[in-house]
Amino acid sequence: MDSGGISVDFVEFRRLVDAMGLTPEASEEMDRWGHESAPRLKQALLELYTTIADNPDLSAFFDDVEQLSHVRQKQYEHWRTLLSGLFDETYLESAKRIGTVHCSIGLEPHAFLTGYAAVLSALLRDASQLDGGAGRKGHRASQSPDIVIDALTRAALLDIGVALTSYSEAEQSRARLSRLKFSNAFRQAFTHSMSELDTAMGSLNQAAGQLANPDPAEDQGLNAAELAQSVTRSTAAVQVQLDELKSKMNEFLTATGAA
Ligand code: HEM
């Protein structure tokens, strides 16, 4: 993990794989079983996407049936990569992309997890039917359900961890970008207001000067002195506003880290 962010780099990821107890032997077992369970995976995904299509809140994320089946195929490929137990860069990129893509479309992590649970549960149920002794039809007799279930559980938790970390990172970077855009817009608006205020204050000062020192050639009327006082008061008020605006802008820029 780099020191400033939460992104999972490949070296850190390989450490996670080891810490998760995914040994090469366990991964190999999972890979062997993964090939055999491919039809079950396909079936689980068909069921998941039927559920999604029937749920208006979830189907709203898809433009049409074609996109739905395209995404189902993408998800199938991801599971196959995961079950291969290779945990290489291709796998890591796929897991991270799942986080960023779902974040970008605004799919809540809990909805993602619900879909994940449905597929994982189907796979675990399938693995539990392995018979380490005699073997069941279509499965190798030597495969122990315990080893496969153990590897699958660890792999799935690792996968979820990577996807959600990348989801959260994408969300943070989106928030950072929007803060930056906001502060730039705020700065521009602020600078403009201040320049307007400066101009107004200059005019007021000038008027105040003329009233306080009337030109004898011009008719100043009877209330020139009062007017002068009023203009001076206005000038002071504008100055107060200006100071306040300046301090607010500094506060804002400091708070958003844009200063
Ligand atoms: C209810 C749960 C889910 C919904 C509603 C959902 C929805 C979607 C949608 C709408 C897209 C297309 C995004 C776009 O490109 O505009 C997508 C892409 C994808 N989803 Fe999901 N998803 C769900 C769960 C999952 C799960 C559990 C996985 C796998 C573990 C997964 C894997 C993928 C993959 C691999 C892609 C393609 C990413 C790419 O473009 O490379 N999804 N999903």
TrEMBL record:
So which domain of life are we looking at? Answer: Bacteria
Please give the Gene Ontology molecular function terms for this protein: heme binding; oxygen binding
What Pfam families has UniProt attached to this entry? Protoglobin
InterPro entries (alphabetical): Globin-like_sf, Globin-sensor_dom, Globin/Proto, Protoglobin_sensor_dom
- Span of the secretion signal? none
Residues crossing the lipid bilayer are none
What is the name of the protein in this document?
A: Protoglobin
UniProt organism field:
Maricaulis salignorans
Q: What's the source species' lineage? A: Bacteria, Pseudomonadati, Pseudomonadota, Alphaproteobacteria, Maricaulales
